[in-house]
Amino acid sequence: MTNLNEHPTVKNYYANRLPPGTVAEPKPLKAKELRELILRLGADDVGFVSVGRSELDDQRDYILKAFPHTKTLICIVVKSAKQNLRTPYRSIANEEFHNIYDRLNEIGREIVLELSEQGVEALYTPSGFPMEMEQYPGRIWVVAHKPVAEAAGLGKMGLHRNVIHPKFGNFINLETILIDREVEEESVPIDYSPCIGCNLCVNACPVGAISLDGHFNFAACATHNYREFMGGFTDWVGTVADSKDRHDYHSRVTDSETASMWQSLSFKADYKAAYCISVCPAGEDVIGPFLEDPKQFYDDVVEPLRSKEESLYISPNSDAAAYAKKNFPHKPVRTVGAGIRPQSVPHFLKSMPLVFQREQSAGLNATFHFTFRGAYKGLATVRIADKQIEILEGHIGKSNVLVRSDSDYWIAFLKGERSLAYGLLTGRILATGNILLMPRFERCFPK
Predict the structure, then answer these.
(1) Which residues form the domain of 276?
(2) Helix, strand, coil: what percent of the chain each, to 5?
(3) Cβ(204)–Cβ(285) under 8 Å?
(4) Any idea what DSSP says for residue 43?
(5) Which residue, 313, 335, 357, sits at the end of a domain?
(6) What's the predicted TM-score (pTM) here?
(7) Is residue 11 domain-resident?
(8) pLDDT tens digit string along 337-395?
(9) What's the CATH number where 359 sits?
(10) Which of 84, 107, 217, 364 has the most CB atoms within 10 Å of its CB?
């Protein structure tokens, strides 16, 4: 093996390196100069947040795992073409989503390369759909761009859970860059919400994922809008596997659905709706037409999306099913699995609030204690009351039902591979107390 110290690259490095102790601690970057650089490279707005900021307390471990030397986060905004996102033709809207993702990633890459030339180490975390799929169905993103954007003063999340920029509205996309330097002047959150409380996002959502009181039905949104992503795709694969032959498959899946899935696989996955973004009138550059003539704005932007005939992908007996039947009877419902399949008991407990169907829980007021044994051992409390759910570690308070279960069987039950009744009969699941509450509990969580 060659002596490392004799290698030309190594010799050249040491020959040009300053002696240890002569290199001063790098000075913080000037915010004005950094902002001008980033805007020149194509961003439409930018903000800076120290990694130590309290707003990032629940994100910091993930940030430092991605880039341990992070001292500052740079959040950049690129605005999108709003009319492309407002059209009922989803091919046009989705092409704009993909274009803006590509543009953001190219800008992020250029920023990182430019900073590298200045001696600043940086990492850009790509915009677009997260892809850490080995962690699915858990956290599949590296950095959560939305809370970073809020901390960076680039907007606030509205009722629809999208960041609304004070100028560009929700017609933006975000990217975060991690750098190993401090910035002299940090950004601060804006002191108001650009959301104007018009509730048009509630009106436009075809599956009732957004509620007037601020509740968000994650499962309804994910099942329909992300039909050709993650859980929707795995549910479709299950349909393919379950089909006896092509005739059976065609009886379950229409030709247009098959073609759409192929297009998503070939040309990047497409959203089915995202109408909450389409109809939002908030933001200084966006709000004019809504203020001038609200009825005309509704007729031009909202009504075409509401009246569009399209398939809605909905889990059976879910809140979304009842909502669609009442509010969008002209839109055919395709009954599908939610595709959210817990892989472990901890994930089951963590995901319960996301898939909880509060309308299905109406009238249920009960506390469930869980004791898990087998591969996973642990205790948990689930409280359901007044259409709200609370998950607690350990056995807290008095229970109406005590459930003891083999952890592997419980996960198989959640995946639909085993039945609750069979588990009770065979002793894999033991329930004491008011066990008549168990079917009510099961209805609160779509499979």
Answers:
(1) 200-335
(2) 45, 15, 40
(3) no
(4) -
(5) 335
(6) 0.90
(7) no
(8) 877 778 888 888 988 898 899 999 999 999 999 999 999 999 999 999 999 999 999 99
(9) 3.30.1050.10
(10) 217
